[in-house]
Structure formats: C-alpha cells, structure tokens
Amino acid sequence: MLNKEFEAVFKFQLNQPSKAVFKKRSLAQYGASIDVKGIKAMRIKFSFLLLIFIFLTGCVQSINLKQAEIHYNAGSQYEDKGDFISAKEQFAKALSDARLGKAKPAAISMLTYNLGRVTGYACDFEQSEKLLIEALKLEEKVTGPSSGITTMRLFELARLNYDQGKYAEAAKYYSRGLPLVEALNVIESDPITFANALDEYSRALEETGNIDESIKIKTKSKKIKESNSEREVVLVPKRYRCNG
Which CATH number fits domain 143-244: 2.60.40.1230, 1.10.357.10, 1.25.40.10, 3.40.50.300? Predict the structure, then answer.
C-alpha cells in the first residue's frame, strides 16, 4: 500500500525552486573588479565560470530529484502488485537520486523507510532492519521522537522483529510505540488494531519472561476489544513472513 501522507513531502521537495535561479545583480557583486583591466578580465572570467558551475549543479540536482520521483512512483506500482524485488530496486534508485539531488531530510527519511519495508517484504530482514533503523533516526530529527510518522517507524521495526521471533527487540519497539499512538488517540480511531498490537506486545513480553507485565497488557487488550466489539479493523499492517 502506498504511504499517501509521504507523497506530499516528496512532491513538495521536487517543487522547490532550483538554486540555479538568481536575481539580476551587478557584475561587481559576483566578484569582478573594475579597477585594473587585467584583474577585471580574470575576475569576470572566474565569476562567469563559477556561475555556470552553480547553474549546472542546480540543473543536475533538479534532474536527480525528477528521476527520484519517477523511480519512487515505479516502486510504488511494483509494491501494489506484490513484486517486492522490483519495488526494492526502484526505491533504491529513488533514494540514490534523491541524495544526489540534495533532497530535504523529510524526503530522504520517507524513501529510506519505504526501501526498508519492501526490502523486508522481499525477505532480506537484516538489510531491512538497518534501513528502518536509519529511517527512524532520520525521522526523529525531522518531526521529533514522538510524532505520528516516527511511530510508523517504531511499529515497522516491532513487526519486523516480532515476525522473526526476535521478541526482546520487538518488545523494545512496542514499549516505545504503543504509548505514543495511545497519546495520539489511536485507541479511538482504530481500537482493534491497537488491541492487536497490544496482544503482540504481550506475547513478546511473555516470550522474554516478563510474565506479570504480559498479563497486564493482555488484560488491557481484552477490555478494549470487549468495549469495541462492533468495531472493525481499520489498518491491516503487512507482515514480514517468508516461506522457506
């Protein structure tokens, strides 16, 4: 599924004016001197070459960002079709081009996150975890450690570890992410999904020997489900489970 909330971030970056756009200024402002004829000519030449370099750099960066958008869209289409290998290739190219194009940190965070997800769906769990941790660190700097987007990184890492049976790591991410989404009132907007996450956290705690806390979390989940028996799941997260 596409992460629609991230598309605006990426497209905003792509629409930023290039650094190659300049206001008209006097030649002297670009470093030329009119005092000595020889020095004047040399400085004019240097300034002209510098402007060309800056202009070309801006154009190249703009091209890189456009290519990043093309690869991102292609990767999203492959992901929707369930072709995670191709999606991974396209998202990797998008991230590379975005970095070359000096994309803003929010766009780099988003692309790293998407590459991390599909890398995990393609069953490369080790690389997936590295990318998702990188995306988490980036997003903490962009939107803060308690933002809604940051919690997405936390839950992705929790599911990745949980599905591999790495319960201690999963519990670490659930313990941080669950209070944050509860503070964001997810318990009202999607109580069943929240309760399901509590169930996984409870099991992770049980598997790591924290029985008392596991029972406490399980009881909380049960109460939420009982009081929202008519509600349906809103978000069905994709899992990191591979055969063979």
Answer: 1.25.40.10
In the chain, where are the structural domains located? 1-17+29-124, 143-244
Please name the amino acid found at residue 4: K
* 138: three-class secondary structure by DSSP: helix
Amino acid at 201: Y
In Å, how far are 51, 221, 222 from 22, measured between CA atoms? 10, 58, 62
Residues ≥6 apart with Cβ < 8 Å to 105: 138, 141, 142
Q: What is the pTM of this model?
A: 0.76
User: What DSSP line would sit under 47-71, residue for residue?
Assistant: HHHHHHHHHHHHHHHHHHHHHHHHH
Band of residue 63 on the pLDDT scale cut at 50, 70, 90: confident
From the list 86, 63, 67, the residue with the least C-alpha distance to 76 is 86
Instruction: Please answer whether residues 116 and 88 qualify as being in contact, where contact means their C-beta atoms are separated by less than 8 angstroms.
Output: no
